[in-house]
Design a protein that fits this description.
Layout (H helix, E strand, L loop, with lengths): L4 E8 L3 H19 L3 E5 L4 H7 L5 H8 L3 E6 L9 H13 L4 E7 L17 E7 L3 E10 L7 E7 L2 H18 L4 E6 L7 H13 L6 E6 H10 L6 E4 L1 H14 L7 E5 L5 E5 L16 H13 L3 H17 L13 H14 L5
Parallel strand pairs: 1-2, 1-3, 3-12, 5-10, 8-9, 8-10
Antiparallel strand pairs: 4-5, 4-11, 6-7, 11-12
Helix pairs in contact: 1-9, 1-10, 1-11, 5-6, 7-8, 9-10, 10-11
Bound molecules: 3-isopropylmalic acid and manganese (II) ion.
Length: about 350
Amino acid sequence: MSSPFDIGLVPGDGTGPEVLREGRKVVSAAAKKYGFNINFIDYDLGGDRFLATGDLLPDSVLSEFRDLDAIYLGAIGHPEVKPGILEKGILLNMRFELDLYINLRPVTLYPGVATPLADKKPEDVDFVVVRENTEGLYAGAGGFLKKGTPQEVATQESINTRLGVERCLRYAFEYARDRRERQKLTLCGKTNVLTYAFDLWERAFNELAAEYPEVETDYAHVDATCMWMIKNPEWFDVIVTDNMFGDIITDLGAMIQGGMGIAAGGNIHPGKVSMFEPIGGSAPKYTGQNVINPLAAIAAGQMMLAELGENEAAGGLERAIKKTLVEDIQDLGAGKMGHSTSGVGDLVVKYLLDQNLTD
Ligand code: IPM
Ligand code: MN
């Protein structure tokens, strides 16, 4: 058997530890079934540690992270810590410092899951958003002038580098090329107003398109993208966009795939350590009640296995998630599943282990 994968666990805040416990349970079961080993390493980053010590993401932890195969995160966000401190200091810092330049967010409506879109079925809601994850409005460029005075000026600049834009687009073209038969990549931007940033995106997109003739290309403004995601989600296959627009449209995406209980994402630097997380928050009001839905964390585990090259295990896990949704889950909302958090994890493990490897 090959050497184990070193996976850092960051349970974090609120319901993060509860959902990650189920994720770990399921991923461990997949490792056993598919014949690979995982060495889990715990990291106590989050609000409690910050309140006790002032630590956010210490350099020593970052340097250990660089040597891991993957990081698996529960949630960051603590009711006693001012919004922004933990998010910027831990989550965004991890994305920047580890240069996790892709935020991959599938929008998949699984069978048995209710969508707010009337008449839309699983085959209609099945696309992936490739969000640039290290630049744009998130880069932190800007500042105040005359802060606190009536003349105050606040600026926030969107930083778009040719390198950053191009590597994100290249990833998206290759993802679209390899995803399935239908190969379509839509650039989501705002070329009619953001005439610098999205001019660069559009030029780089058109240049790369020539290298990937098999991928059909399309363009939609971000506002129109929101409209089509509701009206005709079946038009999309892979969407590539900048950091801010990607943040916004993937919350919309989470809603049409059934809510935060199922939406997962990967923060990826191809070939290096990447981080996987459920995209919902820490849901403090449900903490410790064993009622929160762990499926988003479990789906993040599935993405992690795929990124680690364990595609068969990832496929088996996806089938187990689908079966749990069809057979057992009443509603994806916290406390409405008809099962506890740990009960859902147990069901996924059961269906995973029940499958023949050739299923
Ligand atoms: C997300 C979150 C983060 C973001 C926040 C918590 C900083 O909303 O992962 O989408 O804006 O990227
Ligand atoms: Mn977000």
